[in-house]
Amino acid sequence: MMSTLKMVRPAVTLFALLTLVTGVVYPLVVAGVAQAVMPGKANGSVLQHNGQIVGSSLIGQHFEGPGYFWSRPSATGPMPNNGLASSGSNLGPLNPALQDAVKGRIAALKTIQPGQYGAVPADLVTASASGLDPHISPAAALYQVHRVAQARGLPEEEVIARVRRHTDTPLLFGEPVVNVLELNLDLAAS
Amino acid sequence: MNSSIVFQTGLYLLILAALAWPLSRYLASLLDGSLAARHGWIGQVDRAVCRLLGTDAEEDMSWWRYAMALLLFHVAGTVFVYALQRLQGVLPLNPQQLGAISPDSSFNTAISFLTNTNWQGYAGESTMSNLTQMLALAVQNFVSAATGIAVVCALIRGFVRRKASGVGNAWLDLHRATTWLLLPLSIVLALALVSQGVIQNFKPNQTAQLTEAVVYQQPKTGADGQPLKDAKGNPVLETVKASTQTLPMGPVASQEAIKMLGTNGGGFFNANSAHPYENPTPLANFLQMLAIFLIPAALVFMFGRWVGDWRQGATIIAAMTLLFVAMVGVEYWAESHANPLLVQLGMDGHAGNLEGKETRFGLAASALFTVITTAASCGAVNTMHDSLMPLGGLVPMWLMKLGEVVFGGVGAGLYGMLIYAILAVFLSGLMIGRTPEYLGKKIDAFEMKMVAFAILATPMLVLGGTALSVMLDVGKAGMANPGAHGFSEVLYAFTSAANNNGSAFAGLSANTPYYNLMLAIAMWVGRFTVIVPVLAIAGRLASKPRLAVTAGTLPTHGPLFTALLIGTVVIVGALTYIPALALGPIVEHLQLFGEVAR
Amino acid sequence: MSHSKNLALFDRTLAVPALVEALRKLSPTAQWRNPVMFVVWVGSVLTTVLGVQASLGHGEAPAGLIWSISAWLWFTVLFANFAEALAEGRGKAQAAALRATRKNVVAKKLASPSRTAKVQVLDSASLRKDDLVLVEAGDIVPADGEVLDGVASVDESAITGESAPVIRESGGDFSALTGGTRVLSDWLVVRVTANPGEAFLDRMIAMVENAKRKKTPNEVALTILLVALTLTFLVVCASLLPFSIYSVAAAGAGAPVSITVLVALLVCLIPTTIGGLLSAIGVAGMSRMMQANVIATSGRAVEAAGDVDVLLLDKTGTITLGNRQAAAFIPAPGISEQQLADAAQLASLADETPEGRSIVVLAKQLFDLRSRPLHDAVFIPFTAQTRMSGVDIGGVAAAMAEEGDVAVDIKAATRQIRKGAASAIKQYVVAQGGVFSDAVTQSVDDAARRGSTPLVVAEGARVLGVVELKDIVKGGIKTRFAELRQMGIKTIMITGDNRLTAAAIAAEAGVDDFLAEARPEDKLALIREHQHAGRLVAMTGDGTNDAPALAQADVAVAMNSGTQAAKEAGNMVDLDSNPTKLIEIVEIGKQMLMTRGALTTFSVANDVAKYFAIIPAAFAVTYPQLKALDVMHLTSPATAILSAVIFNALIIMALIPLALKGVRYRALGAATLLRRNLLVYGVGGILVPFVGIKLIDMALGATGWLQGI
């Protein structure tokens, strides 16, 4: 018992020491280097327009007008793409709520771009994991080109070119993706 | 091509091996003390730390003292993490002015981070102040991982030493693993992650002007803060227009790095590694996946080096890799088939199941991450597991149920696998007509008793906890999905907690006093009913002589033993959990595809 | 041999009492000893109660199903009991035979260690350790003991089966007496060395009688594993009730799984096959030892025998036939082979040692030299001083003259032939002015290099040549050693011979190593050295000077003919005193462990198929989709569950022969052996129940029994 009591001091001291090193020194060192070398990335890859923060190239925003490309559905509450409440839908594959949600999203798309047939790209009607997904697949973007072009009075080729410009094809891993906010900002600026 | 699962898995394993092999050399020299002997300044730091602690660096602790040291260290941590959460409202580095966390949630989180589980009942961005994230949570990410390394070191010493009384010095092992291994690796990884866009700052949250305002409905609250209800009892909704988006800020990268390297998995944000600020690019994702398996794999190689036969380590790695590849195959196969119910509604099914997945990772990297995080005891997610296809959800659940021995948690994976190896050796030793021995150490009744404890504890917790919860209203109340999937949610929660994983079928509302308490118990018991028996085995083995290898000795390397090890893991895992899985994901799968066929 | 009568496996004389005993073992106190079977027992009781309840109309399931399951659960317990009882019965039959030799006899207790001391006649059962007894011709030795005084011939056939009487005398290596043997001639004063009930036989008898049998270390470890598995499955099955209740509510269909089905599932899953047969395996192992006429003083020793890495074997009697035999005559230059043979034969005529006799025989075979009566010869016996023996022919007169103090020229009257070790003869010849030629030295060395013992024959100062005495390596021993090598066991030959000779014999016998010119302390050092390197060592010994080495060795087999000290130091006694037995002992030890491992693996592997039978059956009412898991396409849920239970019970019965006989041991490398056994008992264990359950289900379906349940 005595020998166990004698271990209290080293236990507490070691804990305090490691807390200091890993809880204070470590994050400060990383922050210091990061802020010095890559402040843009370290501070959230923020996009600015006329000195005003208009978003982050990493954080998706919600669009529902015909003239903007729509992002992936977001399950965050209470509003979609809530930066303070990242979350997926957590709906299981057999949950009727999932079928209702997808049914509603398909209907919304079919309403806003009538006459478009064929299966709807899956990423346009299923919620992302974070609720903040900034990307859609090129297929999902192309699915919306006709509508956006019409709403904006732009030739479809022009819109497709913009989509291509904002398409990232990763070097090694992952899928090609279109950054919706950057694409929409680009469209809005023109 | 570059998104193909085969390419990604192959490249992943290749790079993993290329990094883990040299790291194992460093680890071996670090943990057996030869590094400190070679580089005087490291030795000086070590000695200075010991002086500060008031202990003798040379003290060789018995297994019991070693266990007591770890326990005391954890008690200190529990108190500190609990207190910090309760007091965060009056402490600095709290730009969002977040208040104190509830006692049950604080307790659950303290146990969760301490036990390397990092189950999160809370949503990080709206609950934890920067101070709590750094000083309480990130610190535990380091030391809980160091604990795993310390325990596995003690166990390996048990195999290596002959007729010794001690298994090493717990203080020194904890310090060395943290300071000389986890810290430098974390700094490198954190900066690499920042380069990909992971944030690292101490700013208040930023506000962005939305390009297109968002109109949405939310329940109206009355003056008392309670949601208003109409005459029929339905909540009254109000329409709100939002023209800004809040961008969360904080020291994320530093926490993200150790979250992966220490197989902790506790995210800064609720969405964890699916959040773009935690895991912004496919490359960042790849680095995170590498970080999860890096130390577990290196420890296995180190085990081979330490026992003086690299083939022993390679055999275990081979068993792990085969199980891993098989599970990746099943996971990818399950997820690449879209939900047939949604395809019926007019959704394009070619892309597979994308509900709860991020576009930038795609199917392959999501499936791979899911398997890696549950094969290890990481529990970080880049995919919402609750929305996985039934068999896609079965794979992570089953990997955890195996005890997370496929690479596994830092240290925990190896000692878990060695427990299985002892079991395999016991049965196969008998089958060749010898009383069993592993690495020259006889396995007798005492070891089997400890192995039994270690292997029994988790099924009891998982099945017992689930059984209780599906009977109680407080348990059923948390389920977000109806039917068999609700059962799967609860089963997943206890599986994750008892095996110290931390991932979740996150629909389950687990931030309730009932679940906070039950899961905290599962996490604590699940962690220490393995660690203490493992240390006991270490102590007992260390005291035994090491027998010579003869032609009559069962070889514990090579394909035969690899197959045997896999067989033991799979059979034990399958036999214990088949009925529960049959009533969860398996029946879900049959329902989902049976229904469409009909 | 009286007690190793080979009984057929299910011999009526054993099976009938075993059946009775199986019923008697149904008592909970008997079941409690075996945790796995105790769970089955509790399940049987529980289902019986449920059956009664169902018959009264309040059943949770159809009474027919509950009663069928209950009946088969009772059978499961009975079968396991039967296996144990059968093994015990066999052991007891052997023990009874042994015990027959231990009937209480009259003992003559002496007041002091002298034949003439006062004698008190009492029952042998009241003898205590260190009592002194007198045993005379015709008496049965009343207890194990050590001879203090006297020489007697003793008939040990009751114990060893060897009919030739042996000589027992005080001191040296022939002083141990075993109780139950009979003194044929003369008398002995004996000190009793064991209390009643503690003699070797008593210990052995106790071990085959299960009740007194302590579990061996490995058996304890295995039991722990089995208990852990049982507890796991207990939790699995217990949790299924809440799971099922939830599922019924969630699916809105079916009814919760019945207790009966859960009990059936539990019994099918827990390792009943090995649990039921474990103690039978242990008893059968001991009983096999006894059949080999080896008495082990602990089960631990039998287990350790399976682990042995190094065997120390005495050359004489184990590797070679006990005696060296003359194999060739190698004459010195100028001497014919026949001359040498003739002289050697003459020198050996009176030599009654086996070596001596073999020289006579060889000379007769080669040159038809008949042994002839010599009236004028004086035989010179071997003494430790001269290290020679021989004959002086024509020296009778001389000898008589000497006796009569008449001086006679001895040299003129005699042929003096001597045979002996090279060094002794050299000394002898040189002392008489003769020459020990290089050619002879060469022959001596050559013979030694061949592993033979050279015996030099000289007549007077003249060396005639060399008789080559050869060790005869036992037939088949080389293959035996090759098998041992395959098993990973290293053999070391222990011999007092010089290195040259030892090396040659070692090569001929195929042992891995040898210890030449071995003294007892060398043996001890060798054992320690191997143990230090982490190897387990087995050895045999009989002499008192072997005792320290026997005590040090991990498996030490003392010869029954050996001294009491040797027997006390060893952990086994070979009643046949056959040193080769060590190899058999190792195999028996291995066999016992293998049988346990094989049945455990088989038992666990069986569970896979049982799940496929029971899970769909138990839950299909709630989730009809689970029928997809019914890969065996069983007739109905009721037959599926019952088939699994019946299979589970019958497999115990089917494996009793394997448990009693043991898995056949093959001398293969560890990896090959493991691969083979994994294939047979692991993969086989997965596949067999699929077939078995399907067949039973078809049979049940054909009878139409349980239809509509």
UniProtKB/TrEMBL annotation, chain A:
GO terms for molecular function: ATP binding; hydrolase activity; P-type potassium transmembrane transporter activity. Its main location: membrane. The system is composed of three essential subunits: KdpA, KdpB and KdpC. Part of the high-affinity ATP-driven potassium transport (or Kdp) system, which catalyzes the hydrolysis of ATP coupled with the electrogenic transport of potassium into the cytoplasm. This subunit acts as a catalytic chaperone that increases the ATP-binding affinity of the ATP-hydrolyzing subunit KdpB by the formation of a transient KdpB/KdpC/ATP ternary complex. Transmembrane segments: none annotated. Belongs to the KdpC family. It holds the Pfam family KdpC. This is Potassium-transporting ATPase KdpC subunit. Keywords: ATP-binding, Cell membrane, Hydrolase, Ion transport, Membrane, Nucleotide-binding, Potassium, Potassium transport, Transmembrane, Transmembrane helix, Transport. The gene is kdpC. It is a single-pass membrane protein.
UniProtKB/TrEMBL annotation, chain B:
It is found in: Cell membrane. Its main location: membrane. It is a multi-pass membrane protein. One of its GO terms (cellular component) is plasma membrane. InterPro entries: KdpA. Keywords: Cell membrane, Hydrolase, Ion transport, Membrane, Potassium, Potassium transport, Transmembrane, Transmembrane helix, Transport. GO terms for molecular function: hydrolase activity; P-type potassium transmembrane transporter activity; potassium ion binding. It comes from the Bacteria. The chain crosses the membrane at residues 63-84, 135-160, 180-199, 286-307, 313-334, 405-430, 451-472, 517-539, 560-582. The system is composed of three essential subunits: KdpA, KdpB and KdpC. Part of the high-affinity ATP-driven potassium transport (or Kdp) system, which catalyzes the hydrolysis of ATP coupled with the electrogenic transport of potassium into the cytoplasm. This subunit binds the extracellular potassium ions and delivers the ions to the membrane domain of KdpB through an intramembrane tunnel. Belongs to the KdpA family. PANTHER family: POTASSIUM-TRANSPORTING ATPASE A CHAIN, POTASSIUM-TRANSPORTING ATPASE POTASSIUM-BINDING SUBUNIT. This is Potassium-transporting ATPase potassium-binding subunit. It comes from Amantichitinum ursilacus. The gene is kdpA.
TrEMBL record, chain C:
Belongs to the cation transport ATPase (P-type) (TC 3.A.3) family. Type IA subfamily. Its EC number is 7.2.2.6. Pfam families: E1-E2_ATPase, Hydrolase. Keywords: ATP-binding, Cell membrane, Hydrolase, Ion transport, Magnesium, Membrane, Metal-binding, Nucleotide-binding, Phosphoprotein, Potassium, Potassium transport, Translocase, Transmembrane, Transmembrane helix, Transport. Residues 115-209 form the P-type ATPase A domain. Its main location: membrane. The chain crosses the membrane at residues 34-52, 64-83, 220-245, 257-281, 608-626, 638-658, 678-696. It catalyses: K(+)(out) + ATP + H2O = K(+)(in) + ADP + phosphate + H(+). Mg(2+) binds at residues 542, 546. GO terms for cellular component: plasma membrane. GO terms for molecular function: ATP binding; ATP hydrolysis activity; magnesium ion binding; P-type potassium transmembrane transporter activity. Part of the high-affinity ATP-driven potassium transport (or Kdp) system, which catalyzes the hydrolysis of ATP coupled with the electrogenic transport of potassium into the cytoplasm. This subunit is responsible for energy coupling to the transport system and for the release of the potassium ions to the cytoplasm. It is found in: Cell membrane. The system is composed of three essential subunits: KdpA, KdpB and KdpC. The keyword Phosphoprotein applies. ATP binds at residues 351, 355, 382-389, 419. The active site is at 314 (4-aspartylphosphate intermediate). HAMAP family: KdpB (MF_00285). This is Potassium-transporting ATPase ATP-binding subunit. It is a multi-pass membrane protein. InterPro entries: ATPase_P-typ_cyto_dom_N, ATPase_P-typ_P_site, ATPase_P-typ_TM_dom_sf, ATPase_P-typ_transduc_dom_A_sf, ATPase_P-type_domA, HAD-like_sf, HAD_sf, P-type_ATPase_bsu_IA. PROSITE patterns: ATPASE_E1_E2.
